[in-house]
Design a protein that fits this description.
Blueprint (H helix, E strand, L loop, with lengths): L27 H15 L5 H14 L4 H13 L4 H15 L1 H27 L6
């Protein structure tokens, strides 16, 4: 799983070469979270799209930080989640979690997207460093 928005050194693997070992990249923690997300999708009997919609609802419900949305972005994209899907999840759970959580989540998702774009642009520019 090589994400365009997760910077890596030239010799850093997308996944750990030795499961249970150390992650070697500029974004070791985020890489680990992405690995955990991918593994949890693989170990679930739910279709990946349904799984990621439920994960999104849970992130909104717990008022997750932008980095949590970023860590789930690759799996969400690969499962076919669209911006409209995200809006529909927000509409569905607003009566349960409250409007403040939904508005908070919208801002955090936008911040995560902005970070992903900034990191991708930095990589395309060739410097590969986090902004």
């Amino acid at each position: 799983m090589d994400c365009w928005y997760l910077p890596r050194g030239l010799d850093a693997p997308a996944f750990r070469d030795n499961p249970g070992g150390f992650v070697t990249s500029d974004t070791a923690v985020l890489d680990t979270l992405v690995d955990l997300t991918a593994a949890s999708v693989d170990h679930s009997s739910l279709p990946p799209r349904d799984f990621m919609l439920l994960r999104l609802a849970a992130l909104i419900a717990v008022d997750a930080p932008p980095a949590s949305y970023l860590a789930n972005a690759d799996a969400s994209e690969k499962s076919g989640i669209t911006a409209d899907d995200i809006q529909q999840v927000m509409i569905a759970i607003a009566p349960v979690v409250g409007t403040a959580r939904v508005v908070s989540a919208a801002g955090k998702i936008l911040r995560a997207l902005g970070l992903a774009i900034a990191v991708g642009e930095a990589e395309m520019a060739g410097d590969g460093d986090m902004p």
